[in-house]
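Tokens in:
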């Protein structure tokens, strides 16, 4: 597949002029290495997964760093965290502000702990998720945005099966003491079936016969390796009693479609999970738009105990708030805006509100059009503009 421009490229190049170290995290196979080699073509490259290289680093990290050519990409550096202190020292004494060290990792918490301790103020940190719709229209709810899945869609199921197997054998065992992979595979299937729901750990633990703390640990692993997105409830109650648990989404809807056994567009549209998958797709596209613009992921949902629910609330800065309802349809009606309108009325005293019903693109609807007073209809391709981000 020809190279597809990534939105994060501009942010990386800009940061390379001001920081000695760049850190890029994200799910395995999301395209981190390809992006960095395209963005910095004259940079040397070292993959820190070969057992011989890992052994060499652990035995003599100083010599390893002395032998590499700068600037350098060190891929999957979570395998050799001992390098971070040496890189910090070299960054401090080099006197150069231009980037000399580009680090990647697929397991964020361990990596971020090392960066926080070793490189505070020295590293610019970015996150790369699979392709977004503004990057390529090949991204779909059914196939998601992983580069290999959209490059060969006819073989996507085979790729996802292999990805899960590799992910289980490599990343999961690297960050946890899980040995019963059969139960963990069942856990993945159950989590997939809870997509778009408020997280209930007990409902997940009961059919597996494992404890709630174990489920919390396993969910933490999925989040740590960028497989799921836990969207917290909004932190202001607008005078209402709120649900306090997060909602569960997957980073890539192609992966969760595979886990749910959905193999075609026809079965997708007829699936009882279609609405939840669309909602997850919107959550993922919101996250991608924010991260690709060099911002932090900042996404919430709203649900009170009286049944009022709005899918997503996005702070836009300066007491501005975007309310987004995800509707898996090409036909949008005024009634679809009712929950947003109700919450907007409650929130207007504290925020300037921009409200949208996000739907499947349709030729019959304008790109962004008025739905009813104060609420607009927008396709999922318009999500960056809805968030005030250049598409």
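Residues out:
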């Amino acid at each position: 597949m020809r190279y597809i421009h990534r939105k994060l490229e501009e942010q990386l190049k800009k940061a390379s002029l001001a920081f000695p170290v760049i850190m890029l995290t994200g799910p395995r196979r999301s395209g981190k290495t390809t992006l960095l080699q395209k963005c910095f073509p004259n940079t040397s490259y070292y993959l820190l997964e070969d057992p011989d290289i890992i052994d060499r680093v652990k035995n003599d990290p100083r010599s390893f760093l002395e032998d590499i050519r700068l600037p350098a990409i060190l891929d999957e550096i979570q395998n050799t965290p001992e390098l971070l202190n040496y890189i910090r020292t070299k960054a401090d004494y080099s006197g150069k502000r231009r980037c000399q060290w580009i680090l990647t990792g697929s397991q964020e918490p361990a990596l971020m702990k090392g960066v926080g301790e070793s490189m505070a103020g020295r590293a610019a940190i970015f996150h790369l998720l699979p392709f977004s719709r503004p990057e390529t229209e090949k991204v779909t709810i059914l196939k998601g945005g992983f580069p290999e899945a959209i490059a060969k869609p006819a073989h996507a199921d085979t790729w996802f099966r292999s990805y899960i197997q590799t992910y289980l054998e490599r990343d999961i065992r690297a960050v946890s003491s899980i040995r019963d992979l059969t139960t963990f595979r069942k856990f993945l299937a159950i989590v997939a079936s809870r997509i778009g729901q408020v997280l209930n750990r007990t409902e997940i633990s009961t059919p597996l016969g494992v404890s709630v703390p174990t489920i919390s640990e396993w969910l933490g692993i999925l989040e740590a390796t960028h497989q799921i997105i836990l969207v917290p409830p909004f932190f202001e109650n607008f005078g209402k009693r709120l649900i306090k648990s997060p909602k569960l989404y997957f980073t890539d809807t192609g992966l969760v479609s595979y886990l749910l056994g959905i193999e075609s567009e026809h079965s997708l549209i007829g699936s009882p999970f279609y609405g939840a998958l669309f909602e997850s797709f919107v959550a993922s596209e919101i996250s991608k738009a924010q991260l690709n613009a060099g911002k932090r992921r900042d996404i919430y949902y709203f649900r009170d105990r009286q049944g009022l629910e709005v899918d997503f609330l996005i702070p836009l800065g300066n007491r501005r708030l975007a309310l987004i309802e995800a509707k898996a349809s090409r036909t949008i009606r005024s009634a679809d805006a009712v929950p947003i309108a109700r919450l907007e009325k409650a929130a207007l005293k504290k925020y300037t509100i921009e409200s949208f019903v996000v739907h499947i693109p349709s030729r019959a609807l304008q790109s962004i059009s008025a739905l009813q007073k104060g609420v607009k209809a927008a396709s999922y391709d318009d999500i960056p503009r809805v968030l005030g981000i250049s598409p």
